Amino acid sequence: MIPTSTVLDHVRDAWRRAIPQAVIVLRRVRGVGPFRLATLILAGVLALSLMALITYTAIELARFRRVESRRTTLVYAAGQPLVPGVNVLKIDLAGTLRRLKYAEVRAPVTAPGQFRRDADAWELYLRGIEDDHQRRPARVRLELQGERIAHVLRDGQALGSVVLEPEILTSAATRPGEEYHPVGLADAPRVLVQAVLAAEDHRFFEHGGLDVRGMLRAAWANLRAGRVTQGGSTITQQLVKNRLVGSQRTFGRKVREAWLATVIEWRYSKEQILEAYLNEIYLGQRGSLAIRGVGAAARAYFRKDVHQLALTEAALIAGMARAPNSYSPAANPERARQRRDAVLGRMRELGWISAADLETGRRQPLRVQTVPMPGQSAPYFTDYVRQEVEQRLGVGVIDSHRGASVHTPLDLTLQRFAEAAVARGLDQLERNWPRLRRADSAERLQAALIALDPTTGEIRALVGGREYRTSQFNRAVLARRQPGSAFKPFVYLAALSARRGGPAFTPATFVDDTPLTLKVGTTTWSPRNYEDRYEGRVTVRRALEQSLNAATVRVALEIGLPAVIETARGLGIPSPLAPVPATVLGASEVTPLELAGAYLPFANGGVRHPNLSAVTAVYEENGTRLGLQKSDTTQVVPPAEAYVMTSLLQGVIAAGTASSVRALSPAGTMAGKTGTTNDGRDAWFVGYTPTLLALVWVGFDNGEAHGLSGAQAALPIWADFMRLALDAYPTPSFAVPAGVTTVKIDATNGRVANLFCPVVISETFLAGTEPAPCEEHGGVPAPILNLWRRFSDWLRR
């Protein structure tokens, strides 16, 4: 097979030689006889026509190759990690292995691709495990304690972890608005391949792109019937029509189609052409989404993966190819059944099934699932992957690498949890508040959910809307909304920060939470607390836990609005932030993705990840890794400051606006912040553990007010997702870095407590910022009190 680039080189060389020769010929035509002149002109016309044909062919081959490269570029999820603590039932390990085409056996595993399980252990014969920088087959034993992995063993030796092979998400050729699930020809069952060939082109493996016998037979059948009853196009011609020339009914289009089909047969193998056809054929609609390829059709109509299709199901899908909407089992079940039976009859004529198979198949009722299998995995995420690949590799680079693979950090277990939590949460909100229901699907309440790995900044799950079939707008990435109170942690970080020559505030500092009015330009502005409740004199911790607006504005005014904006910028908020007091309450718009990224430094010890990645690596077909442009991480907050902020945000869950979810996990493992806009248009919750950060936004696309707080609308969805995630993947507590101290203080005055203070609590401080000793209670002199403390500490040691 000649590379397209070689063809283009020949075309360019031919034109370079032809043009000077044509000039020479034209200079010599004077004095040449008419016959010879006509011959020269005819030869020139033929030469130019030939070169035009070569040029056209090369261009179309290049176009075909670009589509082929994108179709054969597969996008993969991350492999499922198996580590101690993982719950094998919650991650659906058996389902994952079956999707990876592992066979469950009763006897001990003896070959790669097998697994066996019993009450206290699983045995896996993995097809590949990293060993000396190579992937080799290996037997692995998972010893269980209850439902959780206790030990991962290989040949009796403990392993830290193993990772299963990644699952395919989609291909780079998938377009927004399509339901697509790519399959390899080897994965398609024999009955499906035979059904497609019987219905469309039974001599596919015999002709060279054009089936003259088939064309004549179809013409004769159509002539006898007085109408078009058969088509003479081969599978290769149909592929050319879909990819290159379109479906316009003109003679010129048919000539181009026939010529290019012959060229494609010369350029590609039969297996490649058939696989491309099976993956690209249009097979009806699922709502607003086009069903593209047999993999998506198997899921949409039968809730099966393609390798599970039975004979009658394969015949029905094959029969739809000619007129997908006319023969759709969902729209026209009787016509679909008749067409299925016709395909079965044709398979019998060709000797591919027995008479008994034919009769049994025709007696089978049409069993089409009214509720289709969930479509393409993580469609909003895969749309974002394609954008990121183009941004980091360059537009069109992936088109030149046939068979490339794009690897992503998506955790399919977390993705399933996220999609389920969003669907359940929005349905529950509409049941609890019927006023939120909308008859028009385009106007319904929406949500977005993003889950990030704090350590790497990688996207582990992403839901961009309520239902991809209804709307492909990715709210997680593209929606610009006011963060409301979810912006406040940036204010308090600026207040606590030691980078301005010593913090003006600590968690124990008291601030006023009373009504205030400010002059902004020519108008006045009064920040109002939720439900107009004011608490008077409160600590910084209390102000953040209860999301008190008046107290927050006072803090911001004291440290200065530029410090707040500078802090938000440093954490990763690139959107415009107006230097006005309302900005500190989240009045400026941000995207959910950038807000989630700005919280990462709180969770990971102060490190900023400039790019929240949806792509971990891209490989050529031969395994060569393509270079991706990367941005270095930056330490934007000292670890101690990040931990103090986490301590404050743990209080939001322990005793603040998110206290309804404090039972989700042991104390000290979760932190977060609700977000509510004063006009009730946007509801948020951003929360995290040491290993997972998740953000939820809820609102209407048109900005209509729903009137719910972040705790009412977003927090329940976040809690549902995190409950599932924590059941599957347990999480540790936050590690306390150097530079942090915990001190017992008097809650009534924020001073270090003595033996006589009436209300004593523990508080977290940056080392060196602890408050002075309390002198209000007990009258004990400070030197004596300090001596007593040192003695008490010595006794405890």
Features:
5-stranded mixed beta sheet, 797 residues, disordered N terminus, 6-stranded mixed beta sheet, alpha+beta, single chain
Report on this model:
The chain is of the alpha+beta class and 797 residues long. It is built from 24 helices and 29 strands. The strands form 9 sheets. Strands 3-4-5-6-7-8 form a 6-stranded mixed sheet, with no helix packed on it. Strands 10-1-14-22-23 form a 5-stranded mixed sheet. A 5-stranded antiparallel sheet has the order 16-15-27-26-25, sandwiched between helices. A hairpin with a 4-residue loop joins strand 26 and strand 27 (693-699). The longest helix is centred in the first third of the chain and has 39 residues, at 34-72. The termini are far apart.
Major sheet, described briefly? 6 strands, mixed
- The chain-level mean pLDDT equals 85
Unreliable spans: 1-8
- How many beta-strand runs? 29
Radius of gyration: 33 Å
Structural class: alpha+beta
- Percent of sequence in beta strands: 15-25%
**SS summary, helix count:** 24
**End-to-end separation:** 79 Å
Strand order of the largest sheet: 3-4-5-6-7-8
Form type: elongated
Percent range of helical residues: 40-55%
